[in-house]
Amino acid sequence: MSCGNFGTVSHLLREESDLKIEELSKQFVRDILLENGGSGGKGLPDLKDEQIIETAVKYIQLYERFVGKKFDFNLAKNPERRIIENLRDSGYLYGGCVQLMAASPRDSSFCERFIESLKDNNIPYIGPFYASAHKETRKVLEYLNILDKSMEPVVIITSAGRSNGLGPVVAGNSRFPVISCNPYSDNEAYMADVHSSLRMPSKLPLAVIIEPANAVLFAKRILDIGRN
Predict the structure, then answer these.
(1) How far apart are alpha carbons 153 and 176 in whole angstroms?
(2) What residue ranges of the chain have pLDDT lower than 70?
(3) How far apart are CA 199 and CA 109, in angstroms?
(4) pLDDT (tens digit per residue) in 203-219
C-alpha cells in the first residue's frame, strides 16, 4: 500500500489522525511499539501499565460487539483452568493424568501392572520415569520441577523396592498427590521394608497402597474430584 511521503501506514495515521478509524485490533499495540522504537529487528519495548489496561479495554469492547453480551470478568480470573475445563468438557482431555515413577528399569514388570489397570480404566498416563532417589536425587528433582508446571492435575504413583526413598522424596518436593506402591518379594521383605513408606517426617503426605490396581483406582478417584 502506497503511503506517499510516510514510511508506513502507522506513520501516516499518526500524522493524519482524521484518516484513522476507531481501532479495535492489534494495530493499537503495534503503533505504541513503533513509537517507542520497536522496529528494524530491535527488541520490543515494554508496555506501560496504562497501555496494557487500554488494550484490554479495547479487546473487551470488541468481544462485546461480536458476542452481543457483557464481558464476564469471572472468566478471566483463571484462564488456564478455564481452558482445561473447556477441553475436558468437549471430550478432548480427560482432565488429568497419572505419572508413573520407578526407582529402576528392573521394576518395569511391576509397572506393567499399573499400566494394565490404567488402560482398563481409560486413564491417561505418563512414564514410567526411572530414577533412584538415593543415587539420582538431582535427576528426580529436575523431573519434578518440569512436572510441577503441568496445567492438568497429576497424580504420581511411585514404585521402589527395598528401602523406599523415591516415594518420600517425590511427596516432599512435588505439588501433586503421591501414592507409593512398592514391590515386595515376600512377606519377610514386606515386614522389613514397608515402614520406609509409612513413617514419614511432618508435613510430608504420602499415601501407601500395596496392590497396583488399588493404587490406580485411588488415583482415579482423586482425578475424578475435579471432573465431577
Answers:
(1) 8
(2) 1-25, 38-42, 76-77, 189, 192, 226-228
(3) 27
(4) 889 999 999 999 999 99
CA of residue 117 relative to chain centroid, distance: 24
Beta carbons within 10 angstroms of residue 96's beta carbon:
23
Structural domain including 197 reads: 97-225
Q: How many folded domains does the chain comprise?
A: 2
Using one digit for the tens of pLDDT, what is the confidence trace for 90-126?
777 777 899 999 999 999 999 999 999 999 999 999 9
Residues 204, 181: Cα–Cα separation, whole Å: 16
Q: Confirm whether 2 is domain-assigned.
A: no
Same domain (yes/no): 51, 161: no
**Three-state DSSP state, 202:** coil
Tell me the three state secondary structure of residue 152: coil
Query: Cell numbers 474430584 label which residue?
Result: 225
Own/partner contacts of 139-142, CB < 8 Å, gap of 24 or more, are: 140/101, 140/166, 140/169, 140/170, 140/173, 141/169, 141/173
**Cell triple for residue 101?**
515413577
Q: Are 182 and 161 a contacting pair, CB within 8 Å? A: yes
